[in-house]
């Protein structure tokens, strides 16, 4: 066939096709009947961002099987890129317009309906696009959410991005030979969003009620949003947990658990896995979570206690797998390994290579290295790639770290989770707390402030203690979510509120957390002695000398206290 001859001449990379062909139609020209040509043309026009990649896959299937199988594949792709009337290949602007349209439909179509009828209609509308509302949420907040454009946009954007990435897996675009961990398009999208976030943060400031000013970018760099600080905190917690295990005479094991073959889309060579059953990343991670729940339940039945850290990272084709660093009493080590292995191999455990590839257990022997040594490379390569040259596939570690972070961000994967330990939120809150006159609070505050996770863990009662039995805990106050403002709080569920720390509770006392009343400014404050200049299109008050008074703070000496033109509008 003429199309197959052209395909043979065409480079393997779809991006290079642009140099030799003008359209996917030309690339597949001559394959099948005239009806096939019209069929392909309509679909290629609907999937423009991936049309060349799809055409390449179409040609590959035609070579290996025939054009009938290729047509069926193309039809499946067409169905995958549509969720009802939503095309997941649309750009951000088009999805935003679509979200606005759907929110308006919810507003207009519920006019004259009572709450029960309105929420039933809105739920059906959302479910059409695979969006569900919390079961315990009240009718009034569900209706308010369905009528909110931002709610629709965030849900649709997440849904479209995840499904689009799954389509790219189907097109053989995510694997070691093409693009490891995530697609190149998704990496570019993540980098663009990160750049936008950094630019936004550089132009915004936090201002307290007392007039204290902090750049939003500086705030970002000083907390765990900063990869370097996140990595350092994880290593501090790992070190403290290992020191705690030595105090108790416990031993550690390092486990790796991988899902069955049917969850993996590609081999390392880039060749598709024939056993793959089109499971997406979330479904694979949910499977591993389910097996872990069974494992924990068995531990509970046998009164076995483990504690440590779980790391989730992707294989080259984006399929998640787990690493577990667990500590336990020596007499439980053999049984813990048995239980973990049983549930790791419970599904398709007899398949070829399962024993070797799907479960691995390694005892942490202090003479050969500490637990930190075992886990450090997994922490580093999943955050920023610092201190590592190459990943397990030979790729640059820093580039791989970006791809892994983009992957985790897209699929909402919790990369690191400590098991059986105390709250890290309390730890972070204590590090921000000033010295206390209370001896009980000061002791644990000092431990947190000096990054002594061992002492903090001991003072919090040790491992595997129920949250309500811990000696200290954070108490929160509820803040109504922005899109629900104006609704009666008593008619809403817990899903309608964000939680803000308000105090630290001990078994005997309650210690308030200082509320500085931080507000977000849309632009940085001018320097006191700078010349007047317009900012954000606002007029300048010449008398201000370019100075805009911070909330709660008095103007500098010699400046007018007249608030006109000085307010933080």
Describe the overall structure.
It is a single chain. A 5-stranded antiparallel sheet has the order 8-5-7-6-9, with helices on both faces. It has a 3-stranded antiparallel sheet with strand order 4-3-13. The chain has a 3-stranded antiparallel sheet with strand order 10-11-12, with helices on one face. The chain is built from 20 helices and 13 strands. Helix 3 runs antiparallel to helix 4 (51-64), helix 10 (184-202) packs across helix 17 (397-411) and helix 18 (424-431) packs across helix 19. It starts with a helix and ends in a 48-residue tail after the last strand. With 569 residues, the chain is α+β, with helices and mostly antiparallel strands. The longest helix is centred in the N-terminal third of the chain and has 22 residues, at 149-170.
Topology diagram in text:
Layout: H1 2-9, H2 24-27, H3 34-46, H4 51-64, H5 67-80, E1 82-83, E2 86-87, H6 92-109, H7 115-127, H8 139-146, H9 149-170, H10 184-202, E3 205-207, E4 213-215, H11 216-221, H12 227-247, E5 251-257, H13 281-301, E6 307-314, E7 320-328, H14 333-344, H15 354-357, E8 359-364, H16 371-381, H17 397-411, E9 416-419, H18 424-431, H19 439-449, H20 453-459, E10 472-480, E11 497-506, E12 510-512, E13 519-521
């Amino acid at each position: 066939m003429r199309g197959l001859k052209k395909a043979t001449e065409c480079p393997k990379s779809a991006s290079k096709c642009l140099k030799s062909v003008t359209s996917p139609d030309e690339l597949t020209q001559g394959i099948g009947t005239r009806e096939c040509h019209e069929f392909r043309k309509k679909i290629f026009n609907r999937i423009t961002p991936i049309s060349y990649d799809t055409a390449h896959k179409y040609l590959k299937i035609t070579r290996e099987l025939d054009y009938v199988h290729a047509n069926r594949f193309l039809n499946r792709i067409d169905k995958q890129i549509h969720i009802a009337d939503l095309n997941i290949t649309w750009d951000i602007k088009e999805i935003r317009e679509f979200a606005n349209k759907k929110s308006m439909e919810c507003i207009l179509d519920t006019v004259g309906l009572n709450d029960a009828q309105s929420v039933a209609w809105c739920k059906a509308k959302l479910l059409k696009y695979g969006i569900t509302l919390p079961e315990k949420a009240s009718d009034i907040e569900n209706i308010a959410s369905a009528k909110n454009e931002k709610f629709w946009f965030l849900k649709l954007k997440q849904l479209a991005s995840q499904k689009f990435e799954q389509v790219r897996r189907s097109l053989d675009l995510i694997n070691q030979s093409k693009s490891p961990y995530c697609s190149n398009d998704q990496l570019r999208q993540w980098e663009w969003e990160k750049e936008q976030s950094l630019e936004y943060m550089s132009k915004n400031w936090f201002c307290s009620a007392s007039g204290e000013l902090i750049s939003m970018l500086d705030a970002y760099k000083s907390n765990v949003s900063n990869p370097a600080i996140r990595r350092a905190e994880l290593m501090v917690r790992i070190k403290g947990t290992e020191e705690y295990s030595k105090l108790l005479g416990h031993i550690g094991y390092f486990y790796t658990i991988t899902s069955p073959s049917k969850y993996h889309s590609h081999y390392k060579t880039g060749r598709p896995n024939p056993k793959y059953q089109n499971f997406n990343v979330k479904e694979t991670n949910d499977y591993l979570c389910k097996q872990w729940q069974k494992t924990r339940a068995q531990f509970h039945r046998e009164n076995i206690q483990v504690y440590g850290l779980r790391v989730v990272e992707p294989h080259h084709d984006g399929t998640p797998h787990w690493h577990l660093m667990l500590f336990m009493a020596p007499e439980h080590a053999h049984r813990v390994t048995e239980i973990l292995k049983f549930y790791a191999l419970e599904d398709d455990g007899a398949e070829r290579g399962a024993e070797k590839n799907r479960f691995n257990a390694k005892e942490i022997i202090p003479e050969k290295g500490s637990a930190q040594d075992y886990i450090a490379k997994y922490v580093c390569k999943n955050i920023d790639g610092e201190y590592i040259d190459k990943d397990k596939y030979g790729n640059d570690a820093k580039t791989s770290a970006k791809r892994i972070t983009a992957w985790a961000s897209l699929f909402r994967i919790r990369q690191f989770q400590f098991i059986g330990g105390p709250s890290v939120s309390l730890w972070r809150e204590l590090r921000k707390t000033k010295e206390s006159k209370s001896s009980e609070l000061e002791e644990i505050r000092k431990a947190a402030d000096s990054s002594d996770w061992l002492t903090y863990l001991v003072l919090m009662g040790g491992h595997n203690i129920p949250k309500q039995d811990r000696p200290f805990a954070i108490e929160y106050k509820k803040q109504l979510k922005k899109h629900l403002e104006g609704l009666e709080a008593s008619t809403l569920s817990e899903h309608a509120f964000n939680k803000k720390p308000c105090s630290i509770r001990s078994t005997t006392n309650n210690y308030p957390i200082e509320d500085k009343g931080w507000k977000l400014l849309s632009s940085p404050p001018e320097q006191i002695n700078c010349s007047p200049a317009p900012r954000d299109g606002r007029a300048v008050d010449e008398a201000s000398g370019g100075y805009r008074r911070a909330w709660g703070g008095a103007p500098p000496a010699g400046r007018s206290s007249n608030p006109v033109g000085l307010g933080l509008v």
